[in-house]
Specification:
Layout lengths: L21 E4 L8 E14 L1 H9 L6 H4 L6 E2 L5 H11 L9 E2 L3 H9 L4 E5 H9 L4 E4 L6 E8 L7 H14 L3
Parallel strand pairs: 3-4
Antiparallel strand pairs: 1-7, 2-5, 2-6, 2-7
Length: 178
């Protein structure tokens, strides 16, 4: 067995890490951190194909807010921040639904919705592949989908490390397609 400190893992006696060189944030940072050009990410109302057919066949299908009422809502937080914002921005009304299933993070939401647990609002970058191959279906296509600005944040001095620069540059390039 390799001692924890030798595997690169922290142990109670090892020093705390100095922080992250790069991170992707949903809010502009304050202080000395550098926010590099942001990317905007679209949010989409999606469900597995079976639930999408159910919504399309609903007597009130033209009113998506009514048509999804009997479909379970899947989210990562009981407060429903992404779904509430989508409802407010796209439909101009308050969301009245509660989460039927709450999972730990957005990746788990994608998995649960893909498995048929219900519907949700997800970032395009997390569900695009699932939409393209038919594992998920778009329930509504607003004229202007809600956006969330993503910031690539860099710790001052981190650009002295060529590996950080390489990762930062690749992330900036990839962000153009988000």
């Amino acid at each position: 067995m390799i001692p924890a400190g030798r595997r690169g893992c922290s142990s109670p006696s090892s020093p705390a890490p100095r922080g992250h060189d790069l991170l992707i944030a949903t809010r502009r940072p304050r202080g000395r951190l550098v926010a590099l050009p942001p990317a905007d990410e679209e949010y989409l109302l999606v469900a597995a194909p079976g639930w999408a057919r159910h919504v399309e066949e609903h007597p009130s299908a033209e009113d998506i807010c009514t048509a999804v009422r009997d479909v379970p809502l899947v989210t990562y937080a009981e407060e429903l921040p992404i779904v509430r914002r989508y409802w407010r921005n796209v439909f101009g009304k308050q969301l009245s639904a509660r989460a039927a299933v709450t999972v730990p993070n957005l990746y788990a939401v994608v998995s649960a919705v893909t498995a048929g647990a219900g519907y949700s609002v997800l970032p395009r970058s997390l569900c695009e592949e699932h939409l393209c191959d038919g594992r998920l279906a778009l329930l509504h296509e607003p004229v202007e989908p809600p956006l969330s600005t993503l910031f690539l944040v860099q710790r001052p001095g981190a650009d002295a490390n060529p590996d950080v620069v390489r990762v930062r540059d690749r992330l900036q390039h990839a962000a153009r397609t988000w």
